[in-house]
Amino acid sequence: MNGLTLPPRVTDRAFARLAEIAETSGEMRALRVAVEGGGCSGFQYDIKLDDPAADDLVLEKDGLKVLVDQVSLPFLSNAVIDFSEELIGARFVIENPNASSSCGCGTSFSI
C-alpha cells in the first residue's frame, strides 16, 4: 500500500444493476460492500442489500447508494466495484489493487 487512501469507485454498470434491482423489487436499498475475515485466501467480500449506518462511506449516483463500513474501507482503498455478466453468471465484482492474491471464485483475497 502506498499510503494514499482513496475511496473505492463504483462503475456506471454497477449503479445500473442496482437500479434494476430496485425496479424489480420495488424497494430502493443500498448495496453494502464489506470485507470480512475468512474465505479461502484470508479475507472475503460480503456484498448484500442493506440500509446505511451512521459511519458508512456512502457512494451515491442518481439516488442509488453503495455503502462501505469504516472497518472495510482501508481494504477497499482504490478498488473498483463493478458488475460483470459472464457465462458463469452475473455478479458484482471487486477489482482490488490491495489484494496480493485471490481465489478462483473472486470473492476471497489476501493482502
UniProtKB/TrEMBL annotation:
It holds the Pfam family Fe-S_biosyn. Gene3D superfamilies: HesB-like domain. Signal peptide: none annotated. GO terms for molecular function: 2 iron, 2 sulfur cluster binding; 4 iron, 4 sulfur cluster binding; iron ion binding. One of its GO terms (biological process) is iron-sulfur cluster assembly. Residues 10-106 form the Core domain. This is Iron-sulfur cluster assembly accessory protein.
